[in-house]
Design brief:
With 213 residues, this protein is of the alpha/beta class. It contains seven helices and ten strands. The chain has helices spanning 6-15, 28-38, 43-49, 91-104, 120-125, 178-181, 201-212, and strands at 2-4, 20-25, 50-52, 61-65, 82-85, 108-111, 135-137, 148-156, 166-169, 186-188.
């Protein structure tokens, strides 16, 4: 995987240093100064791996890292909700969900549909926080255990999000598909002012996860 920019490289080095193979910097002195200012905990690890090269990113830092082995323990029991993104279309939205899921302490992010959750554009949107929690595509979500909490504007604003829940978030245009909706134990709504039809899916995920926290 290509990691573009200091923040992306920083998160990979912080959460999964063993997967970061090579760091490229446009200037060693500038990279050290930037890393010591913005990511002092990983500055040595970054410089230790660094080779000087042409770097396109404006921070002058890029890296290559491997995708972690599939960690499917998250499909069974868990102590914090796992986010299940139903057929996301926008890599930026999917990346933003990974980022907020990592920040809020979710167990992982799972996706259905054709978008590869490890696509470089998704990784860019998460600022490299894919390396902080399991992120995987599911062929068939039916085997996922835990109460299914479907996020939908037409649901119950007082519904709970238990720690072991599967938080199901719908696709941009059509919302949660009928198959996953049929699985719902509860449908949770985030109340909105009259006239507003929906939140962006990453914003809705953030509100639901932080509401629980
Ligand atoms: C952009 S919305 C999809 C809108 C779509 N037109 C629909 O009918 O659901 C993407 C997803 O964000 C979540 N979402 C957005 N606004 C929400 C709200 N106010 N309450 C609960 N979930 C919401 C839902 O999971 C939804 O499927």
């Amino acid at each position: 995987m290509a990691l573009e920019g200091l923040h992306c490289v920083k998160h990979a080095l912080r959460f999964a240093p063993e997967l970061v193979d090579e760091v490229r910097v446009s200037d060693r002195g500038a990279a050290r100064a930037l890393a010591e200012r913005l990511a002092p905990d990983v500055a040595d690890a970054l410089l230790h791996r660094a080779v000087v090269a042409d770097v396109a990113h404006h921070t002058g830092v890029e890296a290559r890292a491997r995708v972690p082995p599939v960690d499917d323990a998250v499909l069974g029991g868990r102590t914090a909700p796992v986010v299940l993104l139903d057929r996301p279309r926008s890599p930026g939205n999917a990346g933003a969900v990974v980022r907020v899921a990592a920040a809020a302490g979710a167990s992982g992010v799972l996706t259905t549909g054709p978008l590869d959750p490890w696509h470089p554009s998704v990784l860019r949107g998460s600022a490299g926080l894919h390396y902080a929690l399991p992120v995987l595509a599911l062929d068939d979500p039916a085997g996922l255990t835990g109460p299914y909490v479907v996020l939908d504007a037409d649901g119950d604003p007082d519904a709970d999000l238990p720690p072991g829940a599967v938080l199901v978030v719908g696709t941009e245009r059509d919302g949660v598909g009928a198959d996953l909706r049929a699985h719902a134990d509860v449908v949770l709504a985030l109340p909105m002012r009259a006239g507003v039809s929906s939140l962006n899916l990453a914003t809705a995920t953030a509100a639901a996860l932080y509401r629980r926290r």
